[in-house]
């Protein structure tokens, strides 16, 4: 704002106009108000004041009611008609107090009577100033509120646009598990009508009790560790599969306010898996039968060729027999891997005495270890071990693979030891050897498919590189953990931890 007079005090940012026909009152009032920090302009009559008003940024007017020419009442009316936000303080004599009251009824903010003391003028001016500042603060807050609401509305619109344009389905629920938001992709994935609205539980949109229970649990904050929330696969039809992933929606105090579920179309992946499985099974079955025939014929020929085992043709036939045996083993492993990935390798769980099962496996493989002049032992604790609720064929495959590997990767005269005991609520089985061992860089990859450790010690050992992958898949399917410790020339120890679940009920037939 323009400043009409200089002041030693910091300007208040408020312009004041004094309209009075008495020069002494104008000048004295101007000096008092200027010292208070106001920017002051003085006018001798109403006509000049109204002409000057549009050129200034006046917020407060001290207006004498009794002036020659246009009187104060008329000036007040015109100010309120054109600039209603200006605070008008009327100046009047003692004999015209009633007139001042009438002026306030017509819009004046306050009045002061002549003659007045400087303190009286300061009090009235400060009161008007507080009103002006409060009004300005209120307007500022209203503007900020409008801007905030506008920003929120714009942000909401942007977020809604983003959510609606996502290729993955998004479903948001409240704490009661009712859907409050569903984007078009979700409606498309669930094959719903495009006009399907929110407001119902997830079960109203897709008939899947498992998904409904999962969404309800997430929505009410049942999961303390969000990393434990499982993915859920939904079968919409024979040719459509979805993967649902849920996370809780948290408030400012990390309280659960509902859930957000993303729906991913995994149909191409699932169809590819099905094609891969069908291909592996078809090729494996087509190859296994002729390979088995060839292998049997080679065995028969070798049995008949007893004249000179060191002859070149005998050697070549032996190599062919070993290669066909390796191919048959590879086919079996591929089928096992395929079935594990499809979740169909493990059979129905039964009560298994693992120490007895291990004793049978060790007894069966003892011939293989004796052929290499190795010692193969099983250590069982004195205390009886609880039975394990698991698939016995899966357990045989796990421990059979581990013990066979230990025999293969331990040189002649070595030692293979099998230990079984309890570790808390888990049954622990360790297969330890003093064989070739492995460098630490291999330990993170030995459970990968087709991965084999190849060095001067192991290059002559045949294998598919699928055995440990099969073991890992089976252990995972039983809810267990497998770990390995190894060092070059110091042997390896594989540790399997399996949860003991004696009270697991038998599966309900489909």
From TrEMBL:
A GO biological process held by the record: regulation of DNA-templated transcription
Modified residues annotated as 4-aspartylphosphate in this record: 64
GO molecular function: phosphorelay sensor kinase activity
Domain Response regulatory: 15-129
Keywords associated with the record: Kinase, Phosphoprotein, Transcription, Transcription regulation, Transferase, Two-component regulatory system
Pfam family, one: HATPase_c
Enzyme Commission number(s): 2.7.13.3
Superkingdom field: Bacteria
Statement: the UniProt record of this protein carries the keyword Transferase: yes
Record field: catalytic activity: ATP + protein L-histidine = ADP + protein N-phospho-L-histidine
Transcription regulation is among the record's keywords: yes
Annotated Histidine kinase domain residues: 282-502
Enzyme class at the top of the EC tree: transferase
Protein name: histidine kinase
Species this protein is from: uncultured Desulfobacteraceae bacterium
């Amino acid at each position: 704002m323009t400043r009409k007079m200089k002041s030693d005090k910091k300007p208040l940012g408020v312009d004041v106009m004094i309209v009075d026909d008495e020069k002494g009152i104008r000048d004295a009032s101007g000096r008092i108000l200027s010292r208070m920090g106001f920017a002051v302009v003085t006018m001798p009559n109403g006509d000049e004041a109204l002409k000057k008003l549009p050129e200034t940024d006046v917020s407060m007017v001290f207006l004498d009611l009794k002036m020659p020419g246009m009187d104060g009442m008329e000036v007040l009316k015109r100010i309120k008609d054109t600039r209603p936000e200006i605070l008008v303080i009327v100046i009047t004599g003692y004999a015209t107090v009633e007139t001042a009251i009438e002026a306030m009824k017509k819009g004046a903010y306050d009045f002061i009577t002549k003659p007045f003391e400087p303190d009286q003028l300061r009090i009235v001016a400060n009161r008007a100033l507080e009103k002006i500042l409060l009004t300005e603060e209120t307007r500022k807050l209203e503007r900020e509120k409008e801007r905030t609401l506008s920003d929120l509305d714009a942000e909401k619109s942007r977020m809604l646009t983003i959510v609606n344009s996502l290729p993955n389905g998004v479903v948001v629920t409240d704490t009661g598990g009712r859907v409050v938001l569903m984007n078009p992709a979700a409606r498309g994935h669930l094959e719903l009508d495009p006009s399907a609205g929110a407001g119902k539980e997830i079960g109203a949109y897709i008939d899947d009790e498992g998904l409904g229970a999962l969404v309800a649990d997430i929505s009410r904050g049942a999961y303390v560790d969000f990393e434990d929330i499982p993915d859920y696969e939904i079968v919409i039809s024979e040719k459509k599969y979805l993967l649902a992933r849920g996370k809780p929606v948290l408030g400012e105090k990390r309280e659960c306010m509902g859930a957000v579920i993303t729906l991913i179309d995994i149909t191409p992946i699932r169809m590819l898996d099905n094609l891969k499985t069908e291909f592996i099974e078809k090729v494996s079955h087509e190859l296994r039968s002729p390979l088995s025939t060839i292998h049997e014929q080679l065995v028969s020929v070798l049995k008949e060729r007893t004249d000179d085992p060191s002859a070149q043709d005998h050697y070549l036939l032996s190599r062919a027999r070993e290669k066909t045996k390796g191919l048959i083993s590879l086919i079996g492993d591929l089928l096992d891997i395929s079935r594990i990935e499809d979740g169909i390798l493990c059979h129905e769980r039964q009560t298994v005495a693992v120490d007895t099962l291990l004793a049978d496996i060790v007894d069966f493989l003892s011939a293989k270890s004796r052929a290499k002049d190795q010692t193969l032992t099983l250590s069982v604790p004195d205390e009886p071990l609880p039975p394990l609720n698991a698939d016995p064929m899966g357990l045989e495959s796990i421990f059979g693979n581990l013990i066979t590997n230990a025999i293969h990767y331990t040189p002649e005269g070595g030692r293979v030891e099998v230990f079984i005991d309890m570790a808390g609520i888990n049954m622990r089985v360790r297969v330890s050897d003093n064989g070739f061992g492995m460098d630490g860089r291999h330990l993170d990859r030995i459970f990968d498919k087709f991965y084999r450790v190849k060095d001067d010690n192991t290059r002559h050992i045949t294998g598919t590189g699928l055995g440990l992958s099969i073991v890992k898949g089976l252990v995972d399917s039983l809810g267990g953990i497998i770990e390995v410790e190894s060092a070059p020339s110091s042997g390896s120890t594989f540790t399997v931890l399996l949860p003991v679940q004696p009270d697991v009920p038998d599966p309900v037939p489909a």
